[in-house]
Amino acid sequence: MNQLVNERCQACHGGTPPLPEAEVQELLGQLTEGWTRSGSVIRLHIPTRDFAEAFALAARIALLAEREGHHPELGVGWGHLEVELTTHAAGGLTRNDFIMAAKVDRILEASTDGPS
Predict the structure, then answer these.
(1) What's the pLDDT tens digit per position in 21-35?
(2) DSSP 16
(3) Fewest CB within a 10 Å sphere: which of 21, 69, 97, 116?
(4) What angle do CA 61, 97, 89 make, to 5 degrees?
């Protein structure tokens, strides 16, 4: 299991530096296949059977985000959920983004219905 899931997100403030490129690449490699990077954002497109499944996954991720204090952008649509992570205070990616991504992966793995 990815060790990132055992970590907790830490509060970030203005001046928190984004991760160096080498660390971003190393942490991206620890996530499940499907996560992509576009500049300072990591993104996961999750196919679902319908809107209800996408909404249910979004709700689980939203509750996790509240516990962690690190909030992704969530796009819910019929048959898909989009998850985007970045750290605005750092102006880029931080370890928090990868911790959240690993925990999203765990939610998807533990889902009894599983995404389509």
Answers:
(1) 999 999 999 999 999
(2) P
(3) 21
(4) 110
Two tokens, residue 29: 């490699």
Cβ-contact 89, 13 below 8 angstroms: yes
* Model pTM score: 0.91
Please report whether residue 62 resides in a domain.
yes
Q: Flag whether 57 is in a domain.
A: yes
Distance between CA atoms of residues 85 and 29, nearest Å: 16
Q: Is 11 part of any domain? A: no
Check: CB of residue 74 under 8 Å from CB of residue 1.
no
CA dihedral 6, 11, 14, 19 (to 10 degrees): -10
Segments forming the whole domain that contains residue 93: 28-110
Q: Report yes or no on 7 lying in a domain.
A: no
Both tokens assigned to 65 = 């985000």
CATH of the domain at 66: 3.30.1360.20
Residue 100: which H helix or E strand, with range? helix 95-110
Please count the structural domains in the chain: 1
Question: Do residues 10 and 85 lie in contact, with contact meaning Cβ atoms separated by under 8 Å?
Answer: no
